[in-house]
Amino acid sequence: MAGAFDDSGADLELVGITKRFPGFTAIENLNLTIPAGSFFALLGPSGCGKTTTLRLVAGLETPTAGRILIGGKDVTDSPPHQRPVNTVFQSYALFPHMTVLRNVAFGLSRRGIQDALGRAHEALRLVELDHLAGRRPSQLSGGQQQRVALARAIVNRPALLLLDEPLGALDLKLRRQMQLELKTIQDEVGLTFLHVTHDQEEAMTMADTVAVMNKGRIEQMGAPEELYELPKTSFVANFLGQSNLFTGQVVSSSALSIVVSAAGTTLEVPRERAERHAGTVTIGVRPEKLTLLVEKPAPAAGTNVLGPGIVSDVSFSGVSTQYLVEVPGAGTITVFAQNMVFGPVVNRGSEVWVSWAVGHGFGLGDDQEAELRFTPDDDTQSIATQRRAALEAELEA
Questions:
Q1: DSSP symbol at 369
Q2: pLDDT digits (tens, 9 = 90+) for 14-70
Q3: At what angle do helices 100-110 and 116-126 cross, to 10 degrees?
Q4: Do 284 and 244 touch, CB atoms closer than 8 A?
Q5: CB 335 within 8 A of CB 322
Q6: What is the bridge-based pairing of β-strands 73-74 and 12-21?
Q7: In this structure, are strands 280-285 and 362-363 parallel, antiparallel, or unpaired?
Q8: 275 Cβ contact partners less than 8 Å away, ≥ 6 residues apart
Q9: Residue 4: other Cβ atoms inside 10 A
Q10: Could you tell me which residues come within 8 angstroms of residue 374 by beta carbon, excluding any fewer than 6 positions away?
Q11: 120-176 pLDDT per residue, tens
Q12: Selected residue with higher pLDDT from 204 and 394
């Protein structure tokens, strides 16, 4: 099947891209290279510039400064229809009066491509919908309509496929299914995918490389695992998942680690996992890396301990339970504990300590000052809710 779609993807290169609108700058001096054949996700909150970036690549906006190259060809001034690009939108934008087959073949037919219907059938087989070729969009489910929109884009064999929040209108279970199917299709057809989303789980599930965008700039870029395990800034640490952050002065260091005076005690982090090694440093640790203890542990090499603290909230979410622990000098600490027994391990009001292996911590490259702290917008606040709903849905499945 892949042989019918053997046109390879192309590199996408953005060089010094700036986009200004009256009153504000949406993108500032953006430099980005996406290798051919990769699945690349641009992740960030509403207003960070990710959709503007996609529209610039599609030719729907013109950059104030900079160049856009696809496959080494400068397309900065090329109109949308002359770019080897197709876009899949959240709204699908299917023609309601046409059959599924005619929807997929529409672009080919308009360009006078021979065997447009034959190629449309091949595209529908790729998304496993050829058996519904004679139906109208209104007769399909949301997930099926999304696949038709994808087939319509792929059938044109673009070098670059742009995905603009394509799964946002689907329910949770279908969205997860489509995440896996999109990745499989991308592997089969070999196109370059640029996926724009505010959903951290969606980006990490599908993409080879994720770029976290904030205020028109890329804060950090890399493999999903790298960004999650070793965020470089407080924004990335808090946008891509949740983090417990503690800021203090470095009081000692060695070839292997640094020690920071923070949260009323000293905390250690491996030198290779810290962006800064002197002065004011923020140490972070993910909630699922923490262990909840009901007795004060004996000091042990390679372990950080905070406490005592009081459990202020217990929130069951299916696979895990979230505990909020108030520790004097450290603030509120979030702990995710996998549910190995029935009911919570500790209850609200309990005195506890939290510990984690030194090797699980990370050191950020920016100061954790109040004015620099990440403030979630409506989209990012909903991610935590979606995460809990996802866990509950998995439990019910």
A1: -
A2: 999 999 999 889 999 999 999 998 999 999 998 899 999 999 999 999 999 999 999
A3: 130
A4: yes
A5: yes
A6: unpaired
A7: antiparallel
A8: 232, 363, 364, 365
A9: 17
A10: 234, 235, 237, 238, 239
A11: 998 898 888 899 999 999 999 888 888 888 888 888 888 898 988 877 766 777 777
A12: 204
Q: What is the DSSP secondary structure assignment for residue 162, as one 8-state letter?
A: E
Which residues touch 342 (CB under 8 Å, ≥6 apart)?
none
Q: What is the pLDDT of residue 367?
A: 60
Q: Which two tokens stand for residue 292?
A: 């909840």
User: Which domains are assigned to the chain?
Assistant: 2-225 (3.40.50.300), 230-396 (2.40.50.140)
**Both structure tokens of 91:** 């709204």
pLDDT, the chain, mean: 86
Q: Is the model more confident about 189 or about 124?
A: 124
pLDDT value, residue 7: 53
Q: Which residue has the tokens 């099926």?
A: 144
Q: By CB neighbour count within 10 A (0-12 exposed, 13-18 middle, 19+ buried), where does 359 fall?
A: middle
Which range has the top average pLDDT, 89-98, 201-210, 275-284, 343-352? 275-284
Contact 167, 178 (CB under 8 A): yes
Q: Which of the pair, 30 or 199, is modelled with greater confidence?
A: 30
Nearest in space to 363 (alpha carbons), one of 248, 274, 269, 236: 274
Spatial CB neighbours of 192, under 8 Å, sequence gap ≥ 6: 9, 10, 11, 12, 34, 35, 36, 37, 38, 40, 159, 160, 161
How many residues are recorded in the chain? 397
Say what the pLDDT of residue 392 is.
Answer: 41
Q: Are strands 160-164 and 85-89 parallel, antiparallel or unpaired?
A: parallel
Cα dist from 155 to 6, 86, 196, whole Å: 11, 10, 21
**Could you tell me the sign of the dihedral formed by the alpha carbons of 394, 239, 324, 282, in that order?**
positive
